[in-house]
Specification:
about 130 residues; mainly alpha; Transcription Termination Factor Rho, Rna-binding Domain, Chain A, Domain 1; 4 helices
């Protein structure tokens, strides 16, 4: 019976930094200076000749909820007002009986009208 062979196993070999692809370059040695992060990316404004920094992805001029997770909203409201006040303002079972962040998130993700009320309350409080 002939012996079946699997794929050929490669043997480890030593490589120097020059043979490695660019994404696998060896770590810089101790005598090399680390590369400092560059300034934020800029673009030329169509109305001026000067470079203008790009807006931060965490802020958005028209959407106050941009970059804010639903979990962060619920946690903030619970810390500020407590479950009792949340249940009074938005009378849903996940706020009234055995409330938790996890059960609230599950409910709010499936119920658009309740999520809108929670988000509107958060935005109103932040303004």
């Amino acid at each position: 019976m002939p012996e079946q062979r699997g794929p050929k196993k490669s043997t480890p070999r030593e490589t120097d930094a020059a043979t490695l692809p660019a994404r696998q370059k060896a770590a810089p040695s101790a005598d090399e200076e680390p590369i400092e992060p560059s300034s934020p990316p800029c673009y030329l404004n169509e109305f001026s000749e000067q470079a203008v920094p790009k807006p931060s992805p965490l802020s958005h001029p028209r959407d106050p909820l941009h970059g804010v997770t639903l979990e962060a909203i619920v946690v903030h409201l619970v810390e500020q007002h407590g479950w009792e006040e949340m249940a009074r303002r938005i009378p849903v079972r996940c706020f009234q009986f055995d409330p938790s962040v996890k059960s609230s998130l599950t409910f709010l993700r499936k119920t658009p009208w309740a999520r809108k009320k929670v988000e509107d309350w958060y935005v109103e409080e932040k303004e």
